[in-house]
């Protein structure tokens, strides 16, 4: 009886993993960008390295409740960006960067 339960359990787990993998379209690649966000926690500026250069990127910062606290169009040069955050209250934030070249989401903490 234990053998049947174990076999059933592994079949369920295998099916769930297959269903998750099958939900991604075949032509969509799984790429993970290596970003470096520093200093973290930050006080006046947060730096993000590892971005793709673009002339028009939309930078948005959200607080932990999902409220948009900062939005701006920015040029990314030298694969990096420096965002002034001195006007933000201390806490956790999420940065999203959207452009034709990339869509990035990362987090940082403000002291």
Structure description:
The chain has a domain at 36-110: Immunoglobulin-like (Sandwich), CATH 2.60.40. 19% of the residues lie in helices and 43% in strands. It has one helix at residues 2-22; strands spanning 36-38, 45-49, 54-63, 68-76, 80-84, 91-98, 103-110. By secondary structure, the chain is α+β, with helices and mostly antiparallel strands. The protein has a 4-stranded antiparallel beta sheet with strand order 4-3-6-7, with no helix packed on it.
Class based on secondary structure composition and strand pairing = alpha+beta
**Biggest sheet record:** 4 strands, antiparallel
Residue fraction in strands? 35-45%
Task: Say how many strands there are.
Answer: 7
At the fold tier of CATH, the topology name of the domain at 36-110 is: Immunoglobulin-like
Strand order of the largest sheet: 4-3-6-7
| Cα-atom radius of gyration | 20 Å
Write the CATH architecture name of the domain at 36-110.
Answer: Sandwich
Number of helices: 1
Helical residues, percent: 10-25%
State the order of secondary-structure elements, H for helix, E for strand. HEEEEEEE
Multimeric state: single chain
At the first level of CATH, the class of the domain at 36-110 is Mainly Beta
Integer average pLDDT:
81
Domain Secretion system C-terminal sorting: 37-108
Signal peptide: 1-21
Keywords: Signal
Organism: Euzebyella marina
């Amino acid at each position: 009886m234990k053998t049947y339960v174990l076999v059933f359990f592994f079949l369920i787990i295998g099916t769930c993993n297959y269903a998750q993998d099958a939900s991604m379209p075949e032509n969509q690649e799984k790429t993970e960008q290596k970003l470096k966000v520093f200093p973290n926690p930050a006080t006046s500026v947060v730096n993000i390295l590892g971005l793709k250069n673009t002339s028009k990127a939309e930078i948005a910062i959200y607080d932990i409740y999902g409220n948009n606290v900062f939005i701006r169009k920015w040029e990314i040069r030298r694969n990096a960006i420096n965002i002034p955050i001195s006007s933000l209250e201390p806490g956790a934030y999420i940065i999203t960067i959207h452009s034709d070249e990339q869509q990035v989401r990362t987090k940082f903490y403000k002291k």
